[in-house]
Amino acid sequence: MNIAPKTWSATIIEKRNLTGNIWLIRFHCEDSAFSFIPGQYATVIIDEKTRRQYSFASAPSSLPEGEFLVDTTPMGKGSLFFLHADAGMKFQMLAPLGKFGVSDSPGKKVLVATGTGIAPFRSMLLNEMNNTNIK
Predict the structure, then answer these.
(1) Is the model more confident about 29 or about 115?
(2) What domains are there in the chain, each with its CATH number?
């Protein structure tokens, strides 16, 4: 299934500190047609010249809401954008992007990630749990 990327408007509905400099950013996309495949990412438009990539950390079943895991340690423009963001703030993103995903092969899978690199795996695992009714 291919989904063509486009620009979407979204509103932050929750910003929660998970640990230290790691934040969960939950957003609501204003267009109900918004969709992605677990493992894909978005390019968040920070300003006219700056864009930063964030993997979706939520399962598509939560749409039109989604989640990013953001590490603010670098304190660059993307970090500061989300660090200073509050619920109700609107932003734009180009999505969905990327072809990273879980294969349909029946073999066992090993997922390895550190820090916020776990975001696409979280999306894949949540999606798999939703599809197999695992709780």
Answers:
(1) 29
(2) 6-132 (2.40.30.10)
